[in-house]
């Protein structure tokens, strides 16, 4: 079983998440993608962050419950740092091949995550393009440190099964949608979503 983990704030979930999940399912030959709602991104301010259950409900609305599944497992594990969450998931599901999924903005800031080198050694990573972030990501500190672990995208179908450190950059159509833009345009009003 191969599962892609798309960790995120989902404040709110949107079409960019769905595009990323669908592209990863196909390119990485995944059985499922989990939209793993973060109880609180350690690098994001709490201000402006909708309550967890509102963000989970938002992720559930874009999921299909079959190949793309919204989950509160990170909150139930009581974790916020990805390195801890992935370690616990691997313990709990020893037969699953997990792949960490993220947009290029994630790779650009990965070197600020807790024990990120350890994380990159624990789980294969697939990065998808995002407008404005491709160049900062590929020229950033994490991509530089991990340059010898980068695999060509033609190996994507077997990335999930790789034992050692491995990451790849997938080509994909880009979508400039963001949760920030949706919040700023007033299309996501958590107060009314809580009713
Ligand atoms: N339009 C997009 N294209 C590619 N990846 C995306 C896109 N939107 C979000 N992602 C990725 O999905 C994951 C979760 O993102 P998140 O829930 O923070 O959404 P966001 O739109 O980036 O939010 P915000 O604008 O509040 O920072 C991250 O890995 C992010 O890179
Ligand atoms: O572990 C960390 O130090 C860390 C720092 C920043 C972000 N993350 C994770 O990155 C994922 C994307 O976060 P976000 O808020 O950009 O959607 C989400 O699962 C976060 O928990 C993790």
From TrEMBL:
Q: In which pathway does it act?
A: Cofactor biosynthesis; NAD(+) biosynthesis; deamido-NAD(+) from nicotinate D-ribonucleotide: step 1/1
Q: Which residues, by range, are in coiled-coil regions? A: none
Q: Which reaction does it catalyse?
A: nicotinate beta-D-ribonucleotide + ATP + H(+) = deamido-NAD(+) + diphosphate
Please indicate which superkingdom the organism of origin belongs to: Bacteria
- Gene Ontology biological process: NAD+ biosynthetic process
Identify the Gene3D superfamilies for this entry: HUPs
* Role of this protein: Catalyzes the reversible adenylation of nicotinate mononucleotide (NaMN) to nicotinic acid adenine dinucleotide (NaAD).
Family membership, please give it. Belongs to the NadD family.
Q: What is this protein called?
A: Probable nicotinate-nucleotide adenylyltransferase
The organism is Gluconobacter sphaericus NBRC 12467
């Amino acid at each position: 079983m191969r599962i892609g983990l798309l960790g995120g704030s989902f404040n709110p979930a949107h079409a960019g998440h769905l595009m990323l999940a669908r592209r990863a399912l196909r390119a990485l030959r995944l059985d499922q993608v989990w939209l793993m709602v973060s109880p609180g991104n350690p690098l994001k301010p709490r201000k402006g962050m909708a309550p967890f259950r509102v963000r989970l409900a938002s992720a559930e609305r874009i999921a299909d419950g079959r190949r793309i599944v919204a989950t509160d497992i990170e909150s139930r594990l009581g974790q916020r740092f990805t390195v801890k969450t992935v370690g616990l998931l691997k313990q709990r599901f020893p037969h699953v091949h997990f792949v960490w999924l993220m947009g290029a903005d994630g790779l650009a800031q990965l070197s600020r995550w807790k024990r990120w080198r350890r994380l990159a050694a624990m789980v294969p990573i697939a990065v998808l393009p995002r407008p404005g972030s491709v160049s900062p990501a590929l020229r950033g500190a994490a991509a530089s440190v991990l340059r010898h672990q980068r695999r060509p995208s033609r190996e994507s179908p077997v990335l999930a099964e790789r034992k050692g450190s491995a990451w790849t950059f997938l080509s994909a159509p880009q979508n400039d949608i963001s949760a920030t833009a949706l919040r700023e345009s007033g299309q996501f009003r958590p107060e009314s979503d809580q009713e």
